[in-house]
Amino acid sequence: RGRRGAAAVVLSAAALLAGGIFVAIAGATPRAARVTGDAVVVERRWFADVVIPLAEVRRVSALAADQRRGWTRTAGTSLPGGVAFGRFASPALGAFRLYAWRPGPMVLLETDGGPVVLTPDAPEAFLAEVRARLPEPAPPTAAPSADPPAAPPGGW
Question: For residue 80, what are the CA distances in angstroms to 43, 45, 83, 84, 103?
Fold first, then answer.
């Protein structure tokens, strides 16, 4: 009886742990992305949304096919149906965060915190909306001249 009771406790604990892991993964799974006035928001099922301030986005583009090769999951989850999220790495992007809730075209946000890859439902519209809300880049400043300043008329 003692061994059976201990085995039942171990099995119950394992089932609770597996259930907890399943709930955590399901809760953290991304389900959509939207652009607000000042951020890109990745909506998740039960966990808090991921907010990426537009002030931190330096560039946005469609993810090229060659950038989708050689990905390694470093601290993330991959599920059937194109769902993947967490931290990944690749030769083209280095370390990046991935929020994918469907297969298909992906968008790359180059942020101050590193690359972020998303799978918005309408990638072209998403790209246009993010680009429209990004701050205008500062105009380039003239490089200082290596020549000494010219003497004023009449000399120094």
Answer: 19, 17, 6, 9, 10
Please, what's the b/e burial string for 75-103 (b: 16 or more CB within 10 A of its CB; e: otherwise)?
A: ebeeeeeebbbeebebeebeebbbbbbee
Q: Which helix (H) or strand (E) holds 66?
A: none
Q: Nearest 5 degrees, angle CA 148-CA 149-CA 152?
A: 140
- pTM (two decimals): 0.73
Tens of pLDDT along the chain (156 residues) come to 567 777 767 676 666 555 544 544 455 678 899 999 899 999 988 778 999 999 999 999 999 989 989 999 998 888 777 888 899 999 999 999 999 999 989 999 999 999 999 999 999 999 999 999 987 765 666 555 555 555 666 655
Helices (H), 82-153: 123-133
